[in-house]
Amino acid sequence: MxxxxxxxxxxxxxxxxxxxxxxxxxxxxxxxxxxxxxxxPYQASRAWxxxxxxxxxxxxxxxxxxxxxxxxxxxxxAARPLVTGSHTDTVRGGGRxxxxxxxxxxxxVVRQLIENDIQLERDLLVIDFLGEESNGFGxxxxxxxxxxxxxxxxxxxxxxxxxxxxxDRYADFGLDPSDVLAACSGWATARRPHRYVELxxxxxxxxxxxxxxxxxxxxxxxxxxxxxxxxxxxxHAGTMPMADRRDALVAAAEAVLTVRQQGCDAxxxxxxxxxxxxxxxxxxxxxxxxVRMQAEMRSVDPGWLSAAQLRLAEEIKLKAEACGVGVDxxxxxxxxxxxxxxxxxxTISSTADAMGIxxxxxxxxxxxxxxxxxxxxxxxxxxxxxxGGRSHCPEEWSDLNHIATGIQLxxxxxxxxxxxx
Length: 421
Ligand code: GLV
Ligand code: MN
Ligand code: MN
Known about the structure:
Elements: H1 12-23, H2 40-56, E1 59-62, E2 68-72, E3 82-87, H3 100-115, E4 124-129, H4 142-147, H5 153-156, H6 166-172, H7 177-182, H8 187-190, E5 195-201, H9 206-210, E6 214-220, E7 222-231, H10 248-264, E8 270-280, E9 290-299, H11 302-322, E10 326-335, E11 338-339, H12 342-355, E12 359-364, H13 370-373, E13 379-384, H14 400-419
Parallel strand pairs: 3-4, 3-5, 5-13, 6-12
Antiparallel strand pairs: 1-2, 2-4, 6-11, 6-13, 7-9, 7-10, 8-9
Helix pairs in contact: 1-3, 3-14, 10-11, 12-14
The chain binds glyoxylic acid (GLV) and manganese (II) ion (2 copies).
One manganese (II) ion (MN) binds at residues 91, 98, 133, 366, 392.
């Protein structure tokens, strides 16, 4: 057992400097702090991150799935490693904290361990996972998904709106697509991780409302995505009488409200969002003939989620029929609901108690790399408050003192887990 875990005190100025420097590497032509996966700014940020990891004292080994893996050697190289990390890509128009706090926070833990002469028994791996945010290919968590064996050859054939294949995008980024698929039988299989803990901003309002600095995640919501195609009939917008129209966009508008209502009726954590409607032909003088609609539902209650899917599909069809419009609905599961490991949850919460830090159990409505790494080993997550519950927007903000508390708890938790059998 390391002798001086009490000395792990995060240095706020260092964290602030890292956050500020990384935030400068962004797409100048996009709103907010944009650094989407595979983009030029992302490429540049990864070079920056690699240097930062090395400077913090890690041996950095990019893996075949595009993850940056930094190793802090422990006393026993044969022991299963501890893993922490998160992501540094952002959504378009996103913020400066989502994912980034987990990677930069892990680097601060590494610096604290080294400065206090604490060597863990196990290697500590700090990972900046490739592309966590859902991208133009409709797939989130590229790096962690690949490690968990949840990326398929069919996924590599997904196309973005320009018709580019995901596999080709990997190749342009300097990664061999077949190596990406094989990543699940690489280091993560050879070195089965011991435990995974991820520090992240909450991205919702609960912690701020309850005035507590730390959330310990109970479960990460499952996500079901829907693509609905409404087929009506294009007609002259000036001449076709209202009663005789088969307007696909009117049917889709009913569906948007139906999606919203499912979320409003959820008994526990459940949300439903329509994010995109594309109407054809899109001329001001033509009644819309075809509309494509993208929506998703999330919940930490898998029973509610599957029942809500059925109710939603049924109601959308009925309301479309009433408009004389046909509808075809396709579902895809982005990820299933993933409860945190009770043992890791217990270690995080008892460590917080021992440090005198107030905490609350919270569900995660956002998805995380932890969902996929949970296939490899027991997983837990630590949340820090988000101002006003805002995230995925330029105003996203978490206070430095909360981030520092989260980093201290992450460090002490990793030390505790290092000793766990
Ligand atoms: C990622 O942030 C997600 O929850 O979609
Ligand atoms: Mn995130
Ligand atoms: Mn995000």
